[in-house]
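## tool: complex_structure
## caller: assistant
## args:
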Amino acid sequence: MTGMDAEISFEARAYQACISGLKRQWSGPLYRQVVDLAGTNCDAKGIEQNLRKDSRYQVFGWLEHYLQQFKYLGRWGMLTEFTPQEEKLAKLLADAAAIEPDRLDLDPDMALPDYFCVGDFHQHPGGIWSDAHDAFAYEWGATLTTPMSADHGDLHDRFAGLVNEMAAPENILDQACGFGKTTLALKSLLPDARVTGSDVAGPCLMLGHKRAVEAGLDIRFVQCPVEDLRFDDSSFDAVTGSMLLHEMPPSAIRASLIEARRVLKPGGLYAQLDFYDVPGGEVGRFFHNGHSARNREPYMMSLIKMDLAGELEAAGFEDVAIVPFEEGAGALDNGPDLPHQWRFPWTLITGRAKP
Amino acid sequence: MTHPSHHYFDDPAMTRLMGMVTALAGEVFVLKAQNRRLTVALEDAGSLDPETLSAAGDSPDLAIWMEQERDAFAAALMAPLTEPDMAQAAHDRIFGTGTIGDKVAHATGKSRATGKGDAI
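## result:
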């Protein structure tokens, strides 16, 4: 796997290929069987009740929940593979942190938000914020988030391209940057822009710094929560993020919008990629509800119930737009109808900071 | 935090059996990959012939491997029968089974242990 220096055994690569194959069966043929079963005559809750006794839906649900666990914790799971390497991985991050150290700003006194540190989001036990091996496992796991995409990196490159088209920003804050997938894409596309990544997870920030150093990209990584950014007012002309909002309760989202507005220059671009506009009517919502429950994503449902446009306007944004996002070629071929394969309802949420 | 329990089948034994089958699938696929890798290596080296293959099957090294692998294989196969929810078990090992407050305090204390420049 390019760019990864944790050791991944041949067996682990083969095992993850097997898990990936099973996930593709789940997201393709099995998903389409459940779509056929769902019908169109009742709401999401009714569909769930009607299908509960059908073995095909039972297997669908089981695979959705447990394949994720095998991915992390099976005999050659990502955490199984990386946890014994913790000492080595921590040293790799520490060694990288010593290179261009002014570009990595960790805050040892920062308190993690409560909702973040006990959530085990997407069933990563202990969270992605704990240790070096968690950051490396998160990076590896991200390549398997979208089973139907041929190239996971494509999603972040596409997002970076849209941000550039909309704003041609010169000073960007990429929030909840994790290990920097979007951050590095932004800097690669816009080498003259000043790009900053922020996150609460120290090991992920250290890994992002390492990848940036390896790629020769000048990116600053800062540890802080989105509800309390460590930047001055009007510091940036673009604030971006991906897969952030659905990991937060509504109160935290509201606080983050106010903070984003504060650090943006008037007219600056706010752009988030997340799971919000669910296609396919009640059947689409049925699948989304199920994923939220089965993959330990407790805030996915509260997010789609929010009036995000209204919240953005209340926080000081205008020209708000919420549109489906094509994460890979052909992903939106079915338009507002159910997709042919299971996919996340990727949505691009944008606004401009009011003067 | 104890997450909502996930039961997808009327018979809870099915959950455990599905886990066992999935674990077995992983084992079989890895085995196929190893076998294929070995075949390719031997073919490339011009070493794959029936006599050599037979001799390898009788080697003491293989016998030792078999004994060790037998136990690891069986443990992995049977794990979902005894602990079907690996994630809950891992979560409990990390956070304990106390109140949310206890878990947050534990998690917060752990995050504060990471200082700038310190080894994680």
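## assistant note: Confidence is low (pLDDT under 50) at residues 111-120 of chain B. Chain B touches chain A through 46 residues (CB under 8 Å). Handing back to user.
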